[in-house]
């Protein structure tokens, strides 16, 4: 088996997104397919590394595209908000708060009542939400490394793969 065919097998697995009916392939099915390729551990490791790097690049590209699309979304929402405010201002200026055209209905109405809280210092305690305490994991780990013992908490050491 030559290197081109080997790479081709992994390229096919990389390209697997949907089954024959157009449903997304589960990660378990995808991993089973990847693991079913019978190669030496070194060849498989190189192929996994190439796939990991490719998927990391894909994730980065998707993140950038999401950021770009979020910018477009925000820009368009701002345009909508400005146009609606401008139209409402014009309607109120000419005191015409309700009318119909051939294709649209326009109406300025009151929104539901809401609170305008400038300061919360005088709000009775019964209306205050008190957040649940959070564990300072960094400080607790440091203290436990120095010998502090806490029931129900232990320091663990995990391992992970690094590819360079």
User: How do the SSEs run, as a string of H and E?
Assistant: HHHEEH
- Can you list the strand order of the major beta sheet? 1-2
Number of beta-strand segments? 2
SS class: mainly alpha
Largest sheet: 2 strands, antiparallel
Mean pLDDT: 89
Indicate the overall shape. Answer: flat
Describe the protein.
This protein is mainly α. The chain has a domain at about 5-105. It has helices at about 5-15, 25-35, 40-95, 135-145, and strands at about 100, 105. Strands 1-2 form a two-stranded antiparallel ribbon. A hairpin with a 4-residue loop joins strand 1 and strand 2. The mean pLDDT is about 90.
SSE order and pairing:
Blueprint: H1 3-15, H2 27-35, H3 41-93, E1 98-100, E2 105-107, H4 137-145
Antiparallel strand pairs: 1-2
Protein name: Siphovirus Gp157 family protein
Keywords: Coiled coil
Coiled coil: 73-100
What does this entry show, briefly?
This protein has 164 residues and is mainly alpha-helical. The chain is 51% helix and 4% strand. It has four helices and two strands.
Descriptive tags:
two-stranded antiparallel ribbon; flat; mainly alpha; 4% strand; 164 residues; 51% helix
């Amino acid at each position: 088996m030559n290197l081109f065919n080997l790479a081709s097998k992994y390229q096919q697995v990389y390209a697997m997104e949907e089954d024959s009916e157009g449903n997304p392939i589960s990660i378990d099915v995808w991993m089973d397919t990847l693991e079913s390729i019978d190669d030496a551990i070194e060849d498989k490791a190189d192929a996994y590394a190439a796939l990991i790097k490719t998927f990391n690049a894909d994730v980065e590209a998707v993140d950038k595209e999401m950021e770009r699309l979020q910018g477009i979304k925000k820009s368009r929402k701002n345009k909508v908000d400005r146009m609606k405010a401008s139209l409402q201002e014009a309607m109120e200026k000419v005191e015409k708060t309700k009318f119909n055209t051939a294709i649209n209905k326009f109406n300025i109405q009151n929104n539901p009542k809401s609170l305008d809280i400038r300061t919360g210092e005088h709000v009775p305690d019964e209306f205050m939400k008190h957040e649940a305490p959070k564990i300072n994991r960094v400080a607790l780990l440091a203290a436990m490394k120095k010998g502090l013992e806490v029931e129900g908490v232990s320091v663990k050491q995990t391992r992970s793969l690094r590819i360079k």
